[in-house]
Amino acid sequence: MLELGCGAGDPCSKKLAERHDVLGVDLSRRQVELARANVPQARFEKADMTALDLPEATFDGVVAFYSILHVPRAEQPALIAEIARWLKPDGLFPA
């Protein structure tokens, strides 16, 4: 599972990590540090979600709770296309 805009990892990453391999991404170095402390069983990266270079068909699901709203509207279609590329066939991206 990929969480875009994971923040401090609680509650979403923590709950996801109970059942899935989780990669959380956040733009804030401090939030990533907190997430690593709060959810040690998940992986976290400091990165801009619009600049991620992830392999195709990697994730069973992608979640982004309110984080895409912070991406400029003109950049959102390209991000959604990348999310679709990162998803495995039949992967989930709840909207």
Automatic annotation (TrEMBL):
Residue ranges constituting the Methyltransferase domain according to the UniProt record: 2-91
GO molecular function terms listed in the Swiss-Prot or TrEMBL record: methyltransferase activity
Species per Swiss-Prot/TrEMBL record: Lentzea flaviverrucosa
InterPro entries per the UniProt record, alphabetical: Methyltransf_25 (IPR041698), SAM-dependent_MTases_sf (IPR029063)
Domain of life, per lineage: Bacteria
PANTHER family membership: TRANS-ACONITATE 2-METHYLTRANSFERASE, TRANS-ACONITATE 2-METHYLTRANSFERASE-RELATED
Keyword Lipid metabolism: no
Pfam families for this protein: Methyltransf_25
Keywords: Methyltransferase, Transferase
Protein name in the entry: Methyltransferase domain-containing protein
